Amino acid sequence: MDASHEESKRWSSLESREPELNQAIADVSREDFLVGNFDLKSLFSLSVGGFYSDDCVLWLGTEEMIGKTAAFQRMASVLEPIYTLFEMGMAFVESFRATANSQDSVGNFITDWEAVLGRTQLTSITFRWRTVRAWKDRVVIAERIESLPS
Fold this sequence. Notes:
By secondary structure, the chain is α+β, with helices and mostly antiparallel strands. About 35% of the residues lie in helices and about 40% in strands. The termini are far apart. The relative contact order is 0.18.
């Protein structure tokens, strides 16, 4: 069996819906931020909430949040300045993608992300980060988001 088939087999694990979650996260970047009332926490909850357990643990760097509500609230506050630029028409998503996926020796899924934001008056800005997710019963029970060097 070749290595790519073995990798696909691991990614189709019954415990994980990693590819589906990654696609849902990427789909959020395609939302029209200039239409109607914009509530980032609600958008995030509707788009990816079903992938997380109610009592999941999220780490943003060294900061820890326990529970989906607290985690999504914190994520919304971290991302709000960026989304404000979208709402004001001062920035747009040029690209948003997972650049690498792997699974570690204990079964956690690791995804490296890259978002490139275009701005109306300046050059684009690239953001990179890594997520490490632990899954149980097809929902994320723990996630760590770490910054990657530019």
